[in-house]
Amino acid sequence: MYQNLALLAAFLLTYSIFAGRFESRLLNGPLMFMLAGLILGPAFLSILQPRIDREGLKILAELTLAIVLFSDAASADLKVLKAHEGLPLRLLLIGLPLTMLSGWLVGIWLFPQIPLIELAILATLLAPTDAALGKAVVSNPKVAASVREGLNVESGLNDGICVPVLLMFLALLVEEQAHSPLSLAVELFVEALGIGALIGAALTFIAWLLQRYSRKHHWQTPMWSQLTLPGLALLCFATAQALGGSGFIAAFVGGLLASYLFFEQKHNLLKASEEFASLLSVITWVVFGALVIPWAWSSFTLNIWLYAVLSLTVIRILPVLISLTGTGFDFETRLFIGWFGPRGLASIVFAVMILDYPLQAGRTLVAVAACTVLLSVLLHGLSANPWVSRLANRAD
């Protein structure tokens, strides 16, 4: 255990010191962490041997996504939704549903043996994009502000939007497997959604009232106030899960409400939450490289590789081009927006989640997700800086 911890800490320390150098080239954090896990792990050098079972992996992934969902929702500027010709609104309301639909149709073509409901689950878990993987784009001042803000808001909200869709398909799957009436599936879905939303909103409102009362009496300290939102995120998630709701919905709704209620202070309060999310993300990416990729590698067939490639290209880019029809963006900019929809943390967590359900093709779905995320980390990481430079040179 201590050897694993020492290796992870040494790598994290080294990367934190030289991050600017790495990310100015063709590398990014998730790519480096995934490669470190893969190379140092059991598949190659066997120096890093994380002893974590499926339940442990699930808890790690769920906590990471809960913090990320809350932080992304809380930091999202909802005023940007309608700005810049409605770019993020178009991506979320038109592009996202079309991405799910096209992913489902391509799945029917490549995996005709997999039940339709499971293909819908696959399309949904690969639909959300990852802000961390696209950081080289959304934080680069060379990229037009409209494109940066649009992609940032899209990646911050689309994983939260995909959660209820995934829950709906999983409820339908359970209903189908148990030969129960459709009303039961609807009841399970509404219950998970309703409890989660109610818990997230109620706890966030209570936390805001307590925080306002504390500020009024000058009881707050800068050090401890940094833990307010991380604690709230975990409280929303864990309480909703314990009461039979969706912790992810609770975290997402709580984050959205916190964005409004804590508006004046949210940027300072969110620093610790984002740092906590970054640390958990590092561990998740290392474990993904060390354990998940080697486990899934033997299941990678030609059709799985083909679906992964299509997921990152046609399935994502065509809906984006359609959603941006009629805007003032030129074709290359629209293509750029379509390409930089990397798949990452949310897809990994959703893939781990579905293993608890009675899927006929569970291993195949997880293998497709792992293959897609692997390609995304490599291709988006390597292509970000060169394409950004090209757009910047063209603008000059």
Automatic annotation (TrEMBL):
<keyword id="KW-0812">Transmembrane</keyword>
<dbReference type="InterPro" id="IPR038770">
    <property type="entry name" value="Na+/solute_symporter_sf"/>
</dbReference>
<feature type="transmembrane region" description="Helical">
    <location>
        <begin position="304"/>
        <end position="324"/>
    </location>
</feature>
<keyword id="KW-1003">Cell membrane</keyword>
<keyword id="KW-0050">Antiport</keyword>
<feature type="transmembrane region" description="Helical">
    <location>
        <begin position="361"/>
        <end position="382"/>
    </location>
</feature>
<keyword id="KW-0406">Ion transport</keyword>
<dbReference type="GO" id="GO:1902600">
    <property type="term" value="P:proton transmembrane transport"/>
</dbReference>
<feature type="transmembrane region" description="Helical">
    <location>
        <begin position="119"/>
        <end position="137"/>
    </location>
</feature>
<feature type="transmembrane region" description="Helical">
    <location>
        <begin position="230"/>
        <end position="263"/>
    </location>
</feature>
<keyword id="KW-0472">Membrane</keyword>
<feature type="transmembrane region" description="Helical">
    <location>
        <begin position="29"/>
        <end position="47"/>
    </location>
</feature>
<keyword id="KW-1133">Transmembrane helix</keyword>
<dbReference type="InterPro" id="IPR006153">
    <property type="entry name" value="Cation/H_exchanger_TM"/>
</dbReference>
<keyword id="KW-0813">Transport</keyword>
<feature type="domain" description="Cation/H+ exchanger transmembrane">
    <location>
        <begin position="10"/>
        <end position="388"/>
    </location>
</feature>
<protein>
    <submittedName>
        <fullName>Sodium/hydrogen exchanger family protein</fullName>
    </submittedName>
</protein>
<dbReference type="GO" id="GO:0015297">
    <property type="term" value="F:antiporter activity"/>
</dbReference>
<feature type="transmembrane region" description="Helical">
    <location>
        <begin position="88"/>
        <end position="112"/>
    </location>
</feature>
<dbReference type="Pfam" id="PF00999">
    <property type="entry name" value="Na_H_Exchanger"/>
</dbReference>
<feature type="transmembrane region" description="Helical">
    <location>
        <begin position="157"/>
        <end position="174"/>
    </location>
</feature>
<feature type="transmembrane region" description="Helical">
    <location>
        <begin position="186"/>
        <end position="210"/>
    </location>
</feature>
<dbReference type="GO" id="GO:0005886">
    <property type="term" value="C:plasma membrane"/>
</dbReference>
<feature type="transmembrane region" description="Helical">
    <location>
        <begin position="275"/>
        <end position="298"/>
    </location>
</feature>
<feature type="transmembrane region" description="Helical">
    <location>
        <begin position="336"/>
        <end position="355"/>
    </location>
</feature>
